[in-house]
Amino acid sequence: MTKTAFLGLGHYVPSKVVTNDDLAQMFDTSDEWIQQRTGIKERRYIEESGIGASDLAVPAVQMACKNAGIDVSEIDVIIFATLSPDFNFPGSGCFLGDKLGLPGVPALDVRNQCSGFLYGLQIADAWIKCGMYKRVALVGAEVHSTALDFSDEGRDVTVLFGDGAACAILGPTEEGNRGVIDVEVHADGSGAKELWLEGPASAYNPRLTHEMIDNKTVYPSMNGRHVFRWATAKMPEVSRSVLERNNVAVADLDWVVPHQANKRINEFVAQKLEIPPEKVVHNIQKYGNTTAASIPLALSEAIQEGRAKEGDLVLLPAFGSGFTWGAALVRL
Fold it and tell me: Is there a cis peptide before residue 90, judged by omega within 30 degrees of 0?
């Protein structure tokens, strides 16, 4: 039976490094406060206005293609996961296709926030297994820095996020010892307003007003405690579901590469699943939360650094806005 394999991964982050001390110059915070609550030491921001998520995705796709041993022109379809599209419409996948020189290649934007990569992986897996496409570019890319509130009021959200992009080139394989084993995803909109960006919105007429700007509803807001409780419940739950359904024991895993939202959340999840700390990949300390890019970025770095390798069994869990959550089990 045809399976979906990770043929190559790539990533890219902007060159502008923003440390916790840099943020402490803008609002009331400190390096100690941020590290203690999140595990983040620094993050990357775009260098100047005019750089969108699709721009960050270009070098990530190029790197992934190189590592997969294919030319960019061989990409059959683009799946672009992001909560920060270049513009409201059209989708960032269309902009990316044009920048990669891929006229006519279909592009699908996925708007499932921190779980976007897993939703995209499930779609790509189905397309490849049914023979529809042979080379899928699954991209996660975000530009958060242009939508953050750099004041004391916005501190709790602003310290978390960074800009970045990553890409997985996926394709069919007949090798029985590698490929996507399972992907499970969920959503519960009852928690939608606990982590969201209210305005501008098509639900309002007009979509954007001066009052929205003054009231700061144009910035993301989060009920941190509520999100923490849900994340530390749902990520272990869906991880156990995937492992049990495929008769895989925690001890069989080589790596766990979770969504990088908060190091404390990931440590808590690992403890619940009884996963040794040395098997959990963290890079949130360098990049913050890059949302849809975080899982492929962490996995790409782990492979590039020689930690993760072909044949490794990897668990990919995530939780995010929506609420959405899921987990994937993959043999690299």
Answer: yes
**3-state SS, residue 242:** helix
- Residue 279 identity (one-letter amino acid): K
What's the pTM?
0.97
Hey, which residues are catalytic here? 114, 259, 289
Handedness of CA 283, 242, 235, 325 (dihedral sign): positive
Distances (CA, A) of 223 to 153, 186, 216: 13, 20, 15
* Cα(79)–Cα(83) distance, integer angstroms: 13
Whole-angstrom distance, CA of residue 183 vs CA of residue 181: 7
Candidates 262, 311, 304; CA nearest to 287 is 262
How confident is the model over 254-312, as pLDDT tens digits?
A: 999 999 999 999 999 999 999 999 999 999 999 999 999 999 999 999 999 999 999 99
The ranges assigned to domains in the chain are 3-173, 179-331
Domain at 3-173: CATH code: 3.40.47.10
pLDDT in tens, 171-215: 999 888 899 999 999 999 999 999 999 999 999 999 999 999 999
